[in-house]
């Protein structure tokens, strides 16, 4: 998934994600980008569950663009679930690098 807004994301540890605030609106603008994000999250989930591969998730909270290298443990219709119950709202994810 590519997005020009993702320049210079700040790296964050997954343990610090729970303290972030996430606005309501989707960071992606087109239906094609949203569908691509969904398929990349499905791939990330399979890799996380089968091979425990870490992936890079680039997302935007209320303060700016951040990235985390982590294993995806679950995906619901609204959230990506990481280890220790940490979640990222799907509508705030700009890119998933599997």
Keywords:
98 residues, alpha+beta, SH3 type barrels, 4-stranded mixed sheet, 3-stranded antiparallel sheet, 1 helix, 7 strands
Task: Report what the structure shows.
The longest helix is centred in the middle third of the chain and has 21 residues, at 31-51. The mean pLDDT is 92. With 98 residues, the chain is of the alpha+beta class. Helices cover 21% and strands 31% of the residues. It has one helix spanning 31-51, and strands spanning 10-11, 55-60, 65-70, 72-75, 79-82, 87-89, 93-97. The chain has a single domain (9-97), classed as SH3 type barrels. The strands form two sheets. It has a four-stranded mixed sheet, with helices on one face. Strand 5 (79-82) and strand 6 form a beta hairpin. 23% of the residues are buried. It is built from one helix and seven strands; from the N terminus they run βαββββββ.
Summarize the structure.
This protein is an alpha+beta fold. The chain has one helix at residues 31-51; strands spanning 10-11, 55-60, 65-70, 72-75, 79-82, 87-89, 93-97. It contains one helix and seven strands, in the order βαββββββ.
